[in-house]
Amino acid sequence: METIRKLAILADAAKYDASCAFSGAGKRDSRCSGGIGSTEGMGICHSYTPDGHCVSLLKILLTNFCVYDCAYCVNRVSSNVPRARFSVEEVVTLTLDFYKRNYIEGLFLSSGIIRNADYTMERMVEVARQLREDHRFAGYIHLKTIPEASPELLASAGRLADRLSINLELPTEAGLTALAPEKTVHSIRGAMDELRWRIEEAKEARKAPALPATPDRGRATRARPPRFAPAGQST
């Protein structure tokens, strides 16, 4: 399947993730004006950072294949919708191409569950890793994390992404059991608590005072603590 077809399917499927707010800016498209550039296109949405800055994001799913059969989800395994799957390299290339053309300032990446939670989360983390480490990408990254994934993968996601989020799914355990029986309140709450703890730990570490100056070390210094989802966690 061609990348443009995958983009059409997986950008449309990602619109159900309630993560982006409309910026209020008017849409501009050079195809109509004869100029250069566009604020409209497949997979591009507008979101706000914690400081109120509006950013344009490439908002896509890694895949809309899913092993779960949640009754409320259009991408459930029993749903008759067109399916597609990006490779890690395709997402990285799309993000960089859009970024270099000034279409976007970052990436929002979510996914259906393929094989299992750890395999899917590992693929998403690898996208962020390649962007940050292989391509020195300094743009905004928002990863939708998977509650059932291992704490180690969630930790890796937080070290690479600016923001993490978890779908709360349903407000009650009874509702979750009825409509999404493969998921549990325990796993969702556990993942949210894990992320909150790591975010708070990273913030406290950055507040720590510098090491006092000594004759052998010279002036006061402090190793820079690793960041963890500095833009926070959302649901």
Describe the protein.
- This is Radical SAM core domain-containing protein.
- There is one protein chain.
- This protein is α/β, with parallel strands linked by helices.
- It has a single domain (1-12, 41-207), classed as TIM Barrel.
- It is built from seven helices and six strands.
- Strand 2 (54-61), helix 3 (88-100) and strand 3 form a beta-alpha-beta unit.
- The longest helix has 23 residues, at 185-207.
- It is globular, with a radius of gyration of 20 Å.
Topology:
Layout: H1 3-14, H2 30-33, E1 44-48, E2 54-61, H3 88-100, E3 106-110, H4 117-134, E4 140-144, H5 151-160, E5 163-165, H6 173-179, H7 185-207, E6 232-234
Parallel strand pairs: 2-3, 3-4, 4-5, 5-6
Antiparallel strand pairs: 1-2
Helix pairs in contact: 3-4, 4-5, 5-7
What characteristics describe this protein?
single chain, 235 residues, alpha/beta, TIM Barrel, six-stranded mixed sheet, 7 helices, 12% strand
Outline, from the CA principal axes? globular
Major sheet: size, sense and barrel closure? 6 strands, mixed
Going by helix content, strand content and strand pairing, the class is: alpha/beta
- CATH homologous superfamily annotation: Aldolase class I
Q: Which CATH top level class fits?
A: Alpha Beta
Tally the beta strands: 6
Q: Report the C-alpha radius of gyration, rounded.
A: 20 Å
**Major sheet strand order:** 1-2-3-4-5-6
Number of spatially distinct domains = 1
Q: Overall mean pLDDT score?
A: 82
Total helical segments: 7
The SSE order reads: HHEEHEHEHEHHE
- Distance separating the two termini: 32 Å
